[in-house]
User: Fold these one by one.
Assistant:
Number 1:
Amino acid sequence: MKKIAFISNMAAPYQIENCKYLNQFTGNEYYFIFTLDLESNRPVYWKNLPFEEENTLVLKTPKFITKKIYYNPDVFEELNKLNPDVVIVGGYNNLTGFLAALWAKKNRKKRVLYVERFLNSGWLKSKIKKLIFRIVSRVYDVVFAIGNDAYKEYSKLANSEVFNIPYLLNVDRYNSKKMFNEGGSDIVFLYSGRFSENQPTTILLNAFVELCENYSDIRLILSGNGENLQDCLNIANNSNFSDKIIVDNSYTSWFEMPSLYAKADILVAPLKHSGWGFVVEEAMASGLGIITTYETSAGNENIIDQYNGYLISYSKDEKIFKDSIKMPCENISKIEN
């Protein structure tokens, strides 16, 4: 049996759940070490988990270089106590993870870098990211790229062998037997996620309000938190269709989320970029139609445009968003099938 330590910057419920199942069904002993309990814009209900957080640890002494850049010097103490055989680090720009990899190299332990694809950025920033990755990847024995997009990118850059290892996500709790437009005549769209600058939620709201002028049988559920939520509420309240837009943040547990998907017919996830995008797979498992972007890895890999959903290229043009929502309104029979 080997001890395997996974270093991550965020104590997401699915990671803790994975730790539980990996320990239960494999011959190894997994530990998750988190550098921050929760990051900004992450829901508080993530803490209310229906299972014990076994083999998990949150480092308590972050040292901030800037508001967003930090490291945890106590990672060395915890690794010395645990003495794992393998160290897996989530993210090439995770400073604490990089320190853990250096510890593993010094102590002749196996080192794995587990990474999503690069987020979209300008030419110069992209060059800097690639340079940093080339340098960082030298410390690792192997790179696990999350999905096809990441594999294509990192195969060209890594100084070690690269494998395509997608995320593990248990979707058994979601109800895939839901029928389209079940329980009412309105078509219910759902946006679930962060309301941040990286997600064009205000553009989506403006597009939906404009579409309401031609379609009386549509509604939009918004679920999530973030700095742009109030802007979205202002758009809704200043329109003639505020009754068509509902904010639903009533959930107290991560395991209650399937009931949110059960209220909707179509997930709208027009993300500017996403290293993966679990919301797409959760919606698919719930039997929802999907509208998402090519820039969302989970959508790009799981959705075939106009077959099991709609794929659009990200844009700041409200017309593109409006047309994406309009498509299922005009093709209900296609979605039902």
Number 2:
Amino acid sequence: MTRFELYKIAFTMLDSESTLFWQRAHIFLLIHGAFIAIIGLRIVDPTLLILFGILGMVFSIIWLAVLRMGQEYVYRWVRVINRLERELKIKDEKYLFEMHAEEAKTDNEAKKFFPKCLRTKTTNLIQFLILALIIFWGVVTIYGTYIILSDP
């Protein structure tokens, strides 16, 4: 197998890992959405509030771990591609992956219109969302516990 074939396989694997990364995120969003919808049905049973609060926190922590693992898989394939590019010098001294990065710079130009706080990596925004969900589920759990303890 030639280095260029390995390079194409690495690109395929990178694309596959990126797709899996987003599929995992969608699954966790659906789980949290279902939990929030159930709580939004005005279920006043405090035991269920505590149960969903704890489950929500557990799923948030699992999501954070899966997010970081998926991010590492994507970066691993980027490192493999970069190493293969150094070995496979293209005749015009531009690497294929770098040419894709040049195309992505035009996307970065569009980001200049957004506030600085929104110009960050997507994974950082997802981590912020997960942190907000952990806090939300903590509040739900505390509220359910408060209802149980204050009931005469």
